[in-house]
Amino acid sequence: MYVPREGDPERSPPVSPAGAFGRVGCSLLTFREWDRLEDALDRVRAHGFDRVDLAIVPGHCDHVDPLALGDGRLEAIAGAFAERGLSVSSVNLHPGGMASSDFALADRRIRATVELARHLGARVLTLPPGPAVAPDQWEEAARVVAARIRAYLEVAERAGITLSLEAPHAHSLAEDVAQAARLFERVADPRITCTLDTSHVQRGNRTPLVEALGRLGVPIAHVHLRDTLRGEVTVTPGKGDCDYLPLMEALLRDGYAGDFNFELEYEPSSHAIVERELGFAREHVRRVMQGEPLQLESRVRRQAWFRALDGAAWIARHPRAFVVAHPRLKAVLRPPVRFARHVRTNWVPYRQVQYRAGWQAGWRVGRMPSDVPPRPMAALPGADLAEIRVAILGCGYTGRFEHGPGFLRLPGVKIAGVCDVRPERAELLASRLGCPSFTDAARLLREVRPALVVNCTREWTHHDTTLMCFDAGADVFCEKILAESLATGEDMVRAAREKGRVLGVNYNWRFLPGVQRIRELRDSGELGKLRMIRALSHAGVHHHVIDLVRHLGGRIRTVSATIHDEPGTRGLEEWDAYAHELLYFPSTWCAATLETEDGVGASLVSSGLLDPKGLLLTLDAVFDDGTVNLSGILDKDALGTLTASTRKKIDLRLRRGDAPGGFALSFQRSIEAFYSAYRRGGEIPVTGADALELMRIEHALVRSSETGQRIVL
Question: Residue 146 and residue 583: Cα distance in Å, rounded?
């Protein structure tokens, strides 16, 4: 049991759990699905609570923004609590990475939240210990976090607030009780306290909760109540492994003065789920604390036979997770699983649907396209592969899942830094790539000094960020489209030319295996001359299809189009401000006819009403001696099906390396093609000038629809 020491927070006289039920409250994280603070507080009050744990988790629970408390917002927040008779027992803040080198934004959030907590009369401010790191980096990260915590102890003490670390916590510097105790030792200040989350303490072990108290070595200032089962920490109290009564008795016997707040999270979540599970949890804890018989469901869940059946059902639903959690079983099963996979892959028939003048279905035997992890790119003969420093701007989906891994596998590349305005995104990608993270692009360019920057920011920020990179002496590989307007796109191309910098743009769809095979047929002349292209596509890839026409048929000479646009159906509100100039995302439909300088005609139809899971692209390439059809390009299938209608014998089989079927393959090939040309000093697949020409075509589509005339480029 914890022994009080000088400097510990004030402790209450010992009370029984039955008398302490009035100190049970609720975290607003439970009601994160409610957008308005007032609505969330109403639901807290409706469940009979009068104490609140105010959760501030940017991007996840945004009821209150500590950096936007001007213009009477602070008084409005305090009034919302007071009107409902609610008191704030704790503020739980996730400011960003506590060990991050780019800590300015997190520091502002913490200092602003201290003032917010003081104004609301909160007793405790809870901070996270920081994200998990590799074992050999733990001491350094813990040293940084401990130093920062000691500095904030001074700030909190001046505000009359107890500072607390939520430790242990999964996926953090304090994964378990032992690591939490080590971190508290590094802080080495009698004013530091612990916010105890019961699920993270109990997670993955059968040790009673109460035994953690004596091992942490610091006072408990606050308690979060939730449960855990099979290592999952989003379980409703009463439905998992946690035994709350001994923990509460020990805390109260030791004079614990804090509250017990429910902090429930569910994925997927809904208002109905939250309301139901919170009601169950409150009733369960009330009965536990007041010594009443538990609910029937809780009693049943504690029976050995139910646990056995529930465990078997879980294994049936999650066999892979069960095997991964048991290394010895995994070692035993590996040989027969590999043999079964070999048999299934090479000998078990599978059904294949193709389009040959009508949909046809049949059975095939052999290897299907599969998700094969990419191998590192081979060395580039003839290229100077002295290591270059590459930085990534924008750590959203494309930066995180495509460009980050794509550039990491290239020879002669060192990922020197990543940047995003949302620190949690930058820190996550940085931890995967083994590099520092930033939230300020200028600071990244100044400190990292990259030779090449991959610009994955939003389209309307490409101009400013790209010119900033040019000024810092860096070349740029930019995500499509080049810019949000012709003027800014022209400025980017002009700046690249004047400053002697490389500007490449990622139009990765020309690297789809089916498109590459059609291009090979065009170049080889196996089916004669390409005469016509016909495409039906989802609006979200409309700009890619224009590039495919140019890639397969040559430079576009004339454009005519009819567009029916309803911005309210676009689903991309940020683009509405620019839609008058460029047809980036045709909301309802666009029907266009294009002619290239090589005499190829193209008929394009695109619509935002198509289901991307059912259709992204179907494309016909009509040659003198036959037609090649690429169909079945879906949201999760970039391979599709390639068929031909011709009397000539042509080979349309997938080439080695054409799997996996996801779009990651096209990104990998686009990145490799750009990098190979870049390092050899050759012609970039899609230059800034090429991308600007594609923007002019989109602009011509808009003009043609407005004037009813054909536009000559």
Answer: 52
